[in-house]
Amino acid sequence: MAAPKVAVVGAGVIGLSTALCIVETCPSCSVTVLSEQFSPNTTSDVAAGMLIPHTYPGTPIHVQKQWFKETFTYLFAISNSAEASEAGIHLVSGWQVFKNTPKEELPFWSDVVLGFRPMSEAELQKFPQHQFGQAFTTLKCDCPPYLLWLEKRLKATGVQMYTRKVTDLWELHSEYNIVVNCTGIGAHQLVGDKKLFPVRGQVLKVHAPWVKNFIRDGDGITYIYPGIHRVTIGGTREKENWNLSPDPGTTKDIFDRCCSLEPSLQGAQDIKVKVGLRPSRQCVRLQREVLSQGGVKLLVVHNYGHGSGGFSVHRGTAKEAARLVRECIAALQGASSRAKL
Predict the structure, then answer these.
(1) Which N-terminal residues, if any, form the signal peptide (predicted)?
(2) pLDDT band at 322 (very low <50, low <70, confident <90, very high)
């Protein structure tokens, strides 16, 4: 059989990392990335890119932990290499603080991040509104640099990238053997997934180079995440809100909330407001599907629905999607050898 042709639809962090994992595990494949938007115009470009997992109620915890561990290990190696600054990946230490002690004082990921420990009384004096906290070091991916680094890696391996709006996966059946759906919130319309819903996030990207530590309120709504050049402060979690226009009242609310955690942010300059729609569902959709029309089949692998936690698990889910693509290739090769008999 000729080299299988694989199309990856979507060019956010999930699409690009999935394409890279497919190239690495199936070198005989011809891989193409198709997307209506590329960086800097993807949802991933709005995200802070912090590796602090979000919990998916419909996915077993040991699976989520594996995805996070694979992602952390992969990015840690890059952060420890000469590529770190180009890839936009760096270690960042800080605090997650709680107004009330959480039921779960040790989250499932506490032994994957570095140096996880309860905060001391002295540290908690920085946060008079909070009575409990956790200190740890994790990784952050700055975007667009990380997406551009992934694109560069893909181009170096011969992957083609085209700007194209795909309105129906079936339209690709005459050009490709396998289609990988990494369309994020786009899957709501593309494959009619009614279990997928947007969680609107508005954030501010500000110039405040003196802020070196991350601070995250345990409610997950207020956070301060320093990047290489800018600090991302947020945020909102608005379910079923599709509005991509920044709201000035929300901007003020975010700024006030973050200044109450870190008063020095009053001096932040050059505030840019960004909005993204997190593609949320009870669990990531990571599975194979066979589409067929009139006896013709198209093999599809879905990898979308990562919600707030896409960066934290992107490499782990990309590896799993690549494994499913390998299964599809084996099925195609089996079918083609049977056809020869």
Answers:
(1) 1-19
(2) very high
